Amino acid sequence: MAISSILVTLEQSKSLTKSMQQLDLLFRDKVNNLIGTTTGVQSSPSLAKSPVTSPNMNNSGGFNEPQVEISMETLREMTNQICCVEEGVKTLEPYSEKVKTKSKPKLLQYKEKLIKTLIGGKFISEMMESPEKKNIEACRELIELVQRIDSSNGVNTIFELYYEKNYKEIIEQQKKQQQFFNQILYILKQEDLIYRKLFQSFSSPDEIRTNVKVKLVEFCFKHKNCSLLQTEDLQQLVMNQYRSTKTFFKQLDDLSKSETIQKLLFEPYATLQAKYLSTQEKDYLLKQVRPHLSMSDNFVECIDEALNFLFTECENALERCITFTYGIESQSFIKVINQVFDDFGQSIKKTVSNEINKSLKNRKVPTLSEMASFSVKDRELIQNALKLFELVNDKDQGVKKKLEELEEKIKTKLLEVLKEVLAKNMAEYYVKIQTEQTFKQLSHFYNSLQETQFPIFSMASKSVDLNILQPSQELVKTTLVSYISTILSSVSTKYTSTNYYLSLQNSIGNVEYVDDIHLPDLEHSIHPSKYISQVGEYLIKLPEQLEILKNDDHVSLWIENICKETLILLSEAVSPPKNGEKHQIQQWNADVRYLKHILVDVLDYQEDTKKVLSVIGK
């Protein structure tokens, strides 16, 4: 270094030492003499209620000194001196270790004390005056002084001290989200009126005004005493809390453009938005729907109400998915709906199985001399089974039709919202934070949804078939044939260990067994057996029991099904007396002719006579 430069540096070092000494004197003489003089600060009636905590802070930012009265002249002098010292420090720091290790840290301590304790204290005092007493010019000059001392953070520091003094307590008192939001809006409105006057002479008044308002919102969120995710009720969380947050966000007007504000409001939701479908939605839906399966003594009413509620809740879940994730998590949503239908379908199947067991339980097998009973309870079980069958199989209102309508509605709504998302027309926080890989997957899914034949509810449809439609058919069949099955049990070889016809007494000689479709004319004085008469009488009344069905095709279907089932049960229970005596064969033929008359002539069973008789006489 040239000698001239060394001399200049030495001269600057002396100057810095002198300036630092003067700064020491300022803080020792002018400030320390003021410590102990306190001034009570009254909050403005136009502002939110102020806490009583003193705003004076220690070097770490905590309040621990009484507020002091200090003149603007003294603050100007101290600011000038600090700026002078800072200029010297910046000049000599590269050349002097002493400046770097001693002078600079000491300067920073003075700067912090001047901003936080002295200027900050006076700023708070002036800002909290009533409107008629508020000295805007003084507040403005204090801001300018702080900008000279610390251009990057000084303004934010004194405003945070002011917020701490004036708003911390009232913000912490807000226990509910909407109260919290309303309080922020109220405070912003009050402060904006002040800021417009306060910053009007600054070079960028709108920018600095917006900045301190953002800091005010940040401060409020830092001290909020309510959770934005305070409920496990997804409907409450998404449709109330999240919507409320979005409404508040829009009410912030220009502040909503701030990434800081967006992050404050919506980052707490982001993790839940990505995971709620896989972790909560399925259980939440089932929790809403399952209780309806036991809300009535009539299981058909329960299933009807539960199914209606299921479809309604699926639509609510769609609205949650669109509102909460803008369709981004739609593939997870579809997976959940399929799982819900599968799980809930199994619950319905279990309910139907219980009804089937009721139909079979405690049905006593009558002896040959007894009449099988058909009670009011038996009829009620049949009627309920038929109601359920028609309920779930109705062409226009059945569960299959409703599932198809739900699928179409979901496809339409998802296509609408995904079109906007993929066009990147949404400024929503959750959309903005998605990766390009996510957008590629969404684009592929969007293209698939546009295909007419693209199924989204394959699993749900299969569950409806296996767990709802098939069990409903099984229930009808079981209840309708239960009485017939009970009657046939009284003559079944399985239960009696003998052939019913071969056990008939009062034989009058043997006759050759006639195993031919064209049975010879027999004596019509032979009446059908008691068991077959009971079966026939029950079958004759079958159309009457089916009158509850509104669909004629369903009536025809069940007449045909029960006729077939009767023949199957009869063929399993009894067999023709091929080696029997004459009266045994005659009784057999009489019973077969009687049954054929009921099935074909009365019930119009659409099988030819040969087939009907061959099933029994095989």
UniProtKB/TrEMBL annotation:
* Record keywords, A-Z: Coiled coil, Golgi apparatus, Membrane, Protein transport, Transport
Q: Where is the composition biased (Polar residues)?
A: 38-62
Gene Ontology BP annotations:
Golgi organization; intracellular protein transport; retrograde vesicle-mediated transport, Golgi to endoplasmic reticulum
At the top level of its lineage, which domain of life is listed? Eukaryota
Q: Which residues form a coiled coil?
A: 389-420
Q: Report membrane topology.
A: Peripheral membrane protein
Question: What is the protein named?
Answer: Conserved oligomeric Golgi complex subunit 7
Identify the species of origin.
Naegleria gruberi (Amoeba)
